[in-house]
Structure formats: structure tokens, C-alpha cells
Amino acid sequence: MAHISIIGTGNMGQAIAAVAGRGGHTVTLIGKDDADARLGDVVVLAVPYPALADIVASRGAELAGRIVVDITNPVDFATFDSLTVAADGSAAAELAAALPESRVLKAFNTNFAGTLAAGTVGALTTTVLIAGDDADAKTTLAGIVAAGGLKAIDAGSLRRARELEALGFLQITLAAGEKISWTGGFGVIA
Amino acid sequence: MAHISIIGTGNMGQAIAAVAGRGGHTVTLIGKDDADARLGDVVVLAVPYPALADIVASRGAELAGRIVVDITNPVDFATFDSLTVAADGSAAAELAAALPESRVLKAFNTNFAGTLAAGTVGALTTTVLIAGDDADAKTTLAGIVAAGGLKAIDAGSLRRARELEALGFLQITLAAGEKISWTGGFGVIA
To answer: Does B160 touch chain A (CB under 8 A)?
Structure first.
């Protein structure tokens, strides 16, 4: 069983903690400003994009060697018309560059919290898309997701985080524009 | 009833022709090298991305004033690791710049041909995401899609074509990697 730490106690952090807990793993939910709590093998950064830099600054050395999961959607909320990261980059790529000793994955950013908590999106089982350059790390996270009753798909290398963030952004704009609900969104039909 | 011309007679052209035909519209399916066929009010360019430039060159003047629908996914098939358009742009934005007198929409690029032909993706009705800057043009296309038995969602301005193309690319990589089938993909749960 893995020890999974989730930094960030908002809707997404709580929902991911519930998924991880269903599989019988040890789960620690940590406030983003609590720099003292010990971290597990898998650390999910369930915080808004702007908070990643603080975590790198305060926790960077401690994150070395661990699987670090970036769930952010770096939406420009001033314009709601683009992401704030470089057009050919991603929040996950930035994080991987800032944490060269960590095994950074992108995941959960294409899932609304409600679909993680319920385990379903409409009549479909919720699917978590995972991108990253470390195959073992992806397998570990996919196992945690599957043990929590969801589906996991390996979406490729960390470069695919760019497309996952585009998908996450699009899904947020559709919900904000009331084209879909915050409990709906994109489901994956295999 | 609209007169809908579809340039390109491949799987996507045929599937979109079938959708449009179900609504009782006049549909003309035109070979991409047939420069003589008269065009309708709505022109779907059901061709691979590299063929768009030829159509602009041969048909540009004639496309003025018409609704022009770009369905392309400009995937770099040499690397299968990125799109070939500018990172902050899209094929649709390029097309709109090349056809300033046309009402350019992005649509159908997030739907595999099989899901358009069947009208379903898994147990869900197939949803066509439409982006564009001309609200009337989007309403016209959404009406054609709905009359053909599919769902349509207005995905926002033509700038959202960037995200639609990212989604289309991601979906193609998932199918090529056998994570999903070519009759599956992303379904939309409202």
C-alpha cells in the first residue's frame, strides 16, 4: 500500500483523498501552508496553479524522489480566454523543470471534483487521464485510481500535459458558460 | 433548408454528408480537386489540414460570404508529438485569416467519423463542439447538426479552436495508442 499525501484541502483535494482512501491506502490531507507534515511516496498538489511556486519553494527538496502529481488548470481568470503558461508549454512542464529530482505526473485536471467524488460522469465511470515521463510512476498512480473505483488511462508523455490542460480549460469554459454542468463534462468511451 | 457543400469525399466527408442529409437539407459531396462544382451556403472542408491551402487558392473568392467549416486536426504525423500550427494559434485561425470574407467555424474535429455516422459514442449521443466568432453561423450549423440527430454545443469564440484542436489531437493519440477505439473517444455529458 502506498502512502499518499494530498496538499490542498479544497474540493479537489477532498475528492482525490476519497478516491485514494477507497483503495485502502494511507492518505494524509495536508493544508497547503502546513510545511511540517511528513510527505508520502505519492504527493498530489491539489492547489490552484499560482500556489505551485510556493510549494516548490517550501517543499522542493523534500519532494525529490517522490511521485508528484500536478492537477492544475492554469486558466487566466482575468480574461478567461487563455492559459497563463507558455503556449507550447504546460503547468506540469514548468513543475517538472522546477523539481528535476521528482517524478512529475499530470492527472485529475480533466475531472471535475464532483465526478471524482461520485465515481461517475453521467452513466460512465469517471476516467482519469495521466501524462508523464516515468512509466512506473504512471503505473502506481493508475493503480491507486483503479483501486478507488475509477478508470485510468495513460495519456502519454508529460508533453501531453499541454493537451490535458487545454481540455481542462475548455471543460471549465463550457461549465462556466452553462453549456454543461459542473458534475458533467468529458467522459471517455474506450 | 440550407444547401450544404462538403469538399472531401473521405470517411469524414461521407459521415458529415449523412448527418446533414438526415435533416432534409440539400447536400453536395465534392471531390477536393473538383473546382467546378457550385458551392452552397455552408461549405464543410472535409480535407486533411495540408489541403486547406489549395482550397483557399482555388476557391477563396467563391468562399466569400459563406459559412466555411474547418474540421482539420493539424497533427505533425512525422513526430506524432505536436501540432504543426503555431502553439498559440490553430488551423481554424489560419483559415479565417486567409478567408477574411468568410464566416469560418471550427467543428467536427473532436468527433471520429464512426461516431458521426452512428450518431452515438458508446451509449451517448454524439456531440459536435462548434467554435466561431459569428453567432448566426454557429446557430445555422448547430441546427444542421441537431436536425441530423446529434447534439451541438457552442464552444465559444474561434480562439477556442486551439483547445478543440488539442482535444482532437489527444483523442487521435489515444486511439493510435490503442487506449481507446476509433469508434470511442470523448463524449460530452451535459
So the answer is: yes
- C-alpha of B174 from chain center: 20
User: Closest Cα of chain B to A67: distance in Å?
Assistant: 23
Nearest C-alpha of chain B: how many angstroms from A58?
A: 32
Give the whole-angstrom CA distance, residue A134 versus residue A102: 10
Interface membership of B178 toward A (CB under 8 Å): no
Quick count: other Cβ atoms within 10 Å of Cβ A182?
Answer: 15
How far apart CA B119 and CA B46 sit, in angstroms, is 18
Residue A66: the pLDDT is: 98
pLDDT tens across the length of chain A (190 residues): 899 999 999 999 999 999 999 999 999 999 998 988 999 999 999 999 999 999 999 999 999 999 999 999 999 999 999 999 999 999 999 999 999 999 999 999 999 999 999 999 999 999 999 999 999 999 999 999 999 999 999 999 999 999 999 999 999 999 999 999 999 999 999 9
Distance CA B78, CA B58 (A): 27
CB contact (8 A) between residue A167 and residue B169: no
Query: Are residues B187 and A124, on separate chains, in Cβ contact within 8 Å?
Result: yes
Tell me if A180 and B164 make a contact (CB, 8 A cut-off): no
Q: Return averaged pLDDT per consecutive 10 residues of chain B, 190 residues in all.
A: 95 98 96 92 98 96 98 96 96 98 98 98 98 98 98 98 98 98 98
Give the C-alpha separation, A105 to A132, whole Å: 5
